[in-house]
Design the sequence.
């Protein structure tokens, strides 16, 4: 009923391969010919023949195993873990240097301000200049480009070693400046470049890495490695990479992504233990929420409010980011000025943001001296900052001191922090340096969740009563929910919930986090595209985004409804005048080539610049002189009555005009001129009217074509 194979496919393939080898082993006369591998010929003579042959076979076996997937994935995870750890170490050193400079000049506020402002400005300016000189493709996140590449579009210079160096050094300087920038998006790009470079290197050992489909699979795994080694979150990294970069995902790549991301995250955390930053392998932002009663059911409406508000906030962030870029581009005067002074815009933005975050100035109302990591550590803190009653006042210790201000409470500080960081992050992500937007949005969401949590703790100081048991509200849990919701709304992903669980090391708030993330996605997707799709539209990359809500009727639109029908085309037998008319009447960068105007069979296309170059070559003075000499040497020249020049397809054979074909280059077009033009030159100011047959222009190898 279902059909039946008469032989196993593997057995049939082996038999067929053996038959082909036997067939190739016979000589032309039909006698079998013994063939020995050329690699073994030098080892079949002398002593220890068997040992040498065995050693060669072992070597070939090891080389073949280098081409295995798990070797490639281990190398990819190891390299990315080392790069991530080295960059984190360099970034921490740069931030510590800024704190040291600021603290060493505490006797003079003006010198403190100059040090606080000059340090990040120099780093950002260097990052922008270095990236612009070495590889401008390294600017920005990298995820929009990776989405386009994984769709099958080839973007030149995006996965080269030069771009890799520019991305790593530029991102290190940008994050070391303390600006509200992230590293998650750039790490996806860095991991993809690392995978592409490893594929080229390992292709020396086996041709399997030259397969384009296989390289796409490895790039998909590399995107997971980038997120995994950035946050030490392998599971969330795989899911996030699938959501962000893929419209469809091959299940066979699942284990590749998990294997490489897990190995990379493991090495990344082991390096932290080896450097004595951690005692053992733990989460990056360890939290200690209570597990017996993490939250009350009556708190779920508050978590839902966080999700809905984060959806509106995420859509507003994407809109604001896009409007800033469009404003800079539409203002012709500003755009022209900034194109000449490329380093002025990043320097001015850095100067503005660092001035506003200066701790003795306005920064005292927004915890300006805290880095992003310190900010997240404080926002995820278990204790409640706002409590009623002087005797029950919370003591601010260590880095928590930054959130306390003698003339304002914690609510004012959190509100100012959220509002200022919101537009600062939207502005900073437009700077032409390697940077991402995930971490700034993550921090803003955590601050918003903390604000809601502190408000709940102030409204219910003794907690929510349930069955005569009193459990105090934990604002840190609200911060976790807010961070996941806002970052999910900006990126249109749900996997941020898993990333939050792996970042904090706790899964106690899984239900409120999922509720908030889903609600935030529902609101944000109905209002704005994701941040990455917005950047794709701004950069005009060849990528078709998903249709949003309210646009489902566009699924019924056909290609014929939107295609341009009045297209100027080139035929095989068109004249020079026709070709000039096409070039002057249209500004299309590419021209279609058809067989004839009647059949309209598409043969291919050619770029406009290439047509111009070919015409200038065909009508060059050297070609004309060459044609005149050939005509003078021809024995049976045909005399034409019209005084015109025409290119026609040459149909000489070996028997006809031997002198003519021997002296010509193997080109089809032959220049033919009237005999009168051999004697008299045309008057000055007049132009030759020419015609051309276009087949020779578009066919690269005309010498091997059959005679027409």
Sequence:
């Amino acid at each position: 009923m279902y059909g039946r194979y008469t032989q196993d496919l593997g057995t049939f393939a082996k038999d067929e391969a053996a038959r082909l080898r036997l067939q190739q082993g016979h000589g032309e006369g039909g006698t079998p010919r013994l063939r020995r591998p050329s690699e073994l010929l030098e080892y079949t003579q002398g002593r220890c023949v068997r040992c040498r042959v065995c050693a060669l076979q072992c070597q070939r076996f090891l080389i073949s195993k280098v081409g295995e997937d798990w070797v490639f994935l281990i190398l990819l995870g190891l390299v990315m873990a080392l790069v991530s750890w080295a960059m984190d170490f360099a970034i921490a050193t740069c931030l510590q240097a800024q704190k040291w400079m600021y603290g060493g000049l505490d006797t003079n506020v003006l010198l403190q301000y100059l040090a606080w402002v000059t340090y990040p400005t120099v780093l950002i300016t260097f990052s922008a200049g270095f990236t612009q000189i070495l590889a401008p493709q390294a600017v920005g996140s990298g995820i929009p480009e990776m989405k386009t590449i994984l769709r099958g579009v080839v973007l030149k210079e995006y996965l080269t070693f030069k771009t890799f160096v520019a991305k790593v050094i530029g991102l290190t300087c940008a994050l070391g400046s303390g600006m509200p920038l992230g590293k998650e998006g750039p790490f996806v790009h860095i991991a993809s470049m690392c995978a592409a470079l490893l594929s080229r290197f390992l292709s020396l050992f086996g041709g399997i890495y030259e397969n384009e489909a296989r390289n796409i699979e490895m790039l998909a795994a590399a995107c997971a490695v980038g997120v995994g080694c950035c946050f030490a979150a392998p599971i969330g990294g795989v899911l996030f990479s699938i959501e962000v970069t893929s419209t469809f995902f091959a299940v066979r790549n699942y284990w590749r992504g998990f294997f490489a991301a897990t190995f990379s995250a493991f090495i990344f955390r082991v390096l932290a233990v080896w450097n004595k930053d951690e005692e053992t392998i733990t989460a990056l932002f360890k939290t200690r929420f209570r597990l017996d009663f993490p939250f009350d059911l009556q708190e779920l409406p508050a978590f839902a409010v966080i999700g809905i508000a984060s959806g509106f906030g995420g859509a507003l962030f994407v809109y604001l980011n896009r409007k800033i870029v469009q404003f800079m581009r539409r203002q012709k005067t500003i755009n022209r000025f900034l194109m000449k002074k490329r380093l002025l815009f990043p320097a001015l933005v850095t100067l503005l943001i660092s001035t506003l975050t200066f701790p003795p100035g306005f920064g005292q109302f927004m915890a300006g001296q805290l880095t992003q990591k310190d900010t997240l550590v404080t926002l995820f803190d278990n204790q409640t900052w706002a409590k009623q009653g002087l005797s029950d006042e919370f003591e601010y210790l260590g880095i928590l001191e930054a959130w306390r201000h003698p003339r304002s409470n914690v609510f004012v500080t959190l509100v100012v922090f959220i509002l200022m960081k919101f537009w600062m992050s939207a502005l900073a992500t437009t700077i032409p340096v390697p940077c991402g937007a995930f971490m700034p949005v993550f921090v803003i969401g955590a601050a918003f969740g903390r604000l809601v949590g502190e408000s709940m703790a102030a409204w219910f100081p003794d907690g929510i009563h349930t069955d005569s048991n009193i459990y105090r509200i934990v604002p840190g849990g609200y911060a976790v929910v807010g961070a996941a919701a806002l970052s999910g709304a900006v990126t249109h992903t749900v996997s941020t919930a898993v990333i939050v669980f792996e970042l904090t090391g706790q899964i106690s708030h899984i239900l409120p986090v999922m509720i908030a993330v889903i609600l935030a996605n529902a609101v944000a997707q109905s209002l704005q595209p994701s941040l990455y799709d917005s950047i794709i539209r701004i950069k005009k990359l060849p990528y078709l985004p998903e249709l949003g809500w309210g646009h489902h009727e566009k699924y019924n639109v056909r290609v014929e409804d939107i295609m341009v029908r009045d297209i100027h085309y080139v035929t095989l037998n068109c004249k020079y005048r026709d070709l000039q008319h096409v070039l002057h009447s249209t500004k299309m960068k590419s021209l279609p080539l058809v067989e004839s105007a009647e059949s309209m069979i598409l043969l291919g296309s050619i770029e406009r610049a290439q047509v111009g170059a070919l015409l200038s070559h065909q009508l060059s003075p050297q070609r004309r002189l060459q044609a005149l000499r050939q005509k003078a040497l021809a024995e049976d020249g045909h005399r034409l009555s019209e005084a015109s020049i025409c290119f026609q397809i040459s149909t000489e054979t070996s028997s006809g005009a031997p002198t003519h074909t021997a002296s010509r280059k193997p080109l089809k077009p032959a220049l033919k001129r009237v005999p009168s033009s051999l004697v008299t030159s045309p008057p000055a100011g007049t132009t030759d009217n020419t015609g051309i047959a276009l087949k020779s222009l578009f066919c690269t190898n005309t010498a091997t074509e059959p005679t027409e």
